[in-house]
Specification:
The chain is mainly α. It is 71% helix and 0% strand. Helix 1 crosses helix 6 and helix 2 runs antiparallel to helix 8.
Length: 175
């Protein structure tokens, strides 16, 4: 949870730093709101509830394995700060790639990249990286866990395509 939310915010913060905190958004508002609700919710929930490092029988046979949770071996101050700085590094890397490479690229009609292109690239990269991070951290890959991970990425791509195809004028009947 910390990783995905820190990585989500770092590109916004870095853009704010370089735009002198002008208040300009780099993510689409609709996509921004759907991040925690649709694009990253189920993989994290599935991982937290159903991803076991060992079977229930093994835990019953060896109660010493519960020591991991009691002594905070995997979640302590060191682990928190390691995850935090890794998320910061990942977010800065995504921001640097998006805002340094896409501005000079030209598209099919000869124009160069824009703020929205850079922001959507960063958002797309964050959604994909966070979901793949859950996949890599999983102890077991099941059909259902893969469904949620790749389904979240697919839902993002479908929402992106849908919002790109809809004109706000058509949506509200203006003109």
């Amino acid at each position: 949870m910390f990783y995905k939310n820190v990585m989500y915010v770092i590109p916004v913060w870095f853009f704010g730093f370089f735009s002198l905190f002008s208040g300009q958004a780099i993510y689409d508002n609709w996509m921004y709101q759907l991040y925690n609700v649709i694009f990253t919710f189920m993989p994290i929930c599935w991982f937290a509830v159903f991803d076991w490092e060992a079977s229930k029988e093994k835990f019953l046979e060896k109660p010493k394995l519960y020591k991991i949770g009691l002594e905070d071996i995997y979640f302590n101050n060191g682990a928190f700060w390691r995850i935090f700085f890794y998320a910061c590094f990942s977010g800065v890397f995504v921001w640097l790639i998006g805002f340094t490479t896409l501005d000079t690229a030209t598209n099919f009609n000869g124009t160069t990249g824009s703020l929205w292109v850079d922001g959507q690239f960063c958002f797309t990269a964050v959604v994909i990286i966070v979901n793949f991070k859950v996949l890599i951290a999983s102890s077991q890959w099941t059909c259902i866990s893969l469904f949620w991970i790749f389904g979240s990425i697919l839902s993002y791509l479908l929402c992106f395509y849908g919002l790109s195809a809809i004109s706000l004028f058509d949506l509200f009947g203006v003109f």
